[in-house]
Amino acid sequence: MKRYLNLLIAGIFALISLPSCDFYALDNVWDPALENVFYCGYDEWIAQRTDGTNKLKYTVSKGESATMPFRLWSEFTMDFDVNVPIYVYPDENLALNVDFKVTDSKGNDLVPQSDGGYVLTWNNAIKGNIDVCVVALSDKAGKIIVQTCTKEQGATLTSQDPLSCIIVDNNDYQVRCFTENYYCTVILNQ
Asked: How far apart are CA 139 and CA 56, in angstroms?
């Protein structure tokens, strides 16, 4: 009987202390200023190695394609679309639309903008993946770097400075890339 009484008292104390727990602590730390800040990167999480290489690599031969899933991390549906450029840097001996081409998942050619970026669009900022393909068109060997920021910005990314990761900044939203999964390597014909 004494055991049951002790259990009953312990249960009462547990119920009394329950309201003092803050189950909504996440709501208390939410920063509304970050509501329109999104992240874009490869859906396959990778780690940058100290030798400057990258674990995310694709090897393709003539007629084959490397499919890279880019992901937008977003928790809200917005009344605007999010446009994010990706950048393709081939070896000097490789020519776009001669040795390789860049397409969407349906095989439609993507066209680079004036700054060299290929724009991916997430309608209403809904999180998800957009696949980008690099298709080998010739037997020429080489490598192509595909990344979520410019080559110059990639050299200065640091997790110590979130502002170094901003790849799009306009009146509606800001998009940031990651410091460890911002590029991959496509190796042609090796």
From this structure: 22
Buried b (16+ CB within 10 A) or exposed e, 118-144: bebebeebeeeebebbbbbbeebebeb
Other beta carbons within 10 angstroms of residue 113's beta carbon come to 11
Q: Encoding tokens for residue 29?
A: 């730390």
User: Which fold is adopted by the domain 32-188?
Assistant: Immunoglobulin-like (2.60.40)
Q: In what order do the strands lie in the sheet with 100-104?
A: 100-104, 128-136, 65-73, 37-42, 174-176, 166-169
To the question of pTM greater than 0.70 for the whole model, the response is yes
76 C-beta neighbours (distance < 10 Å), count: 11
Local structure of residue 19 (DSSP, 8 states): G
Nearest to 120 by CA among 136, 102, 137: 102
Q: 13: helix, coil or strand?
A: helix
Give the strands of the sheet with 142-147, arranged side by side: 57-60, 183-188, 142-147, 82-90, 117-122
The predicted-structure confidence for 140-185, as pLDDT tens digits, reads as follows: 999 999 999 888 888 888 888 888 899 999 999 999 998 777 888 9
